[in-house]
């Protein structure tokens, strides 16, 4: 899927893509497959990530302010204390962060 960011650049949204630093604010990524995608330092503010596959995705330093994450798959996703989640967002209890296929992600998911 091709998405034009608010920075005017066109991004290919697909598994294992490198979208580090991308400005995708306000994009509709409903049900997108972002497995293994690098979204570090990306602007995902107000993005519709409902039912999106974010398994093993790097969200380090990403801004998800006001993003819609209902039903998103965050298993094995990596984030850190610089990642900004939507206000009130809580990691679903069913996510086993230690079972990522990527050992580096499993070790550093929450640091």
Report on the structure:
The chain is largely without helices or strands. The chain has one domain. Helices cover 5% and strands 5% of the residues. It contains one helix and two strands. It has one helix at residues 103-108, and strands at 2-4, 10-12. Strands 1-2 form a two-stranded antiparallel ribbon. The radius of gyration is 13 Å and the shape is globular. Residues 99-111 have low confidence and may be disordered.
What is Rg? Answer: 13 Å
Large-scale geometry: globular
Structure summary, number of beta strands: 2
Q: Estimate the helix proportion, in percent.
A: under 10%
Task: List key phrases describing it.
single chain; 111 residues; two-stranded antiparallel sheet; 1 helix
Summarize the structure.
This protein has 111 residues and is largely without helices or strands.
Tell me the layout of helices and strands.
Elements: E1 2-4, E2 10-12, H1 103-108
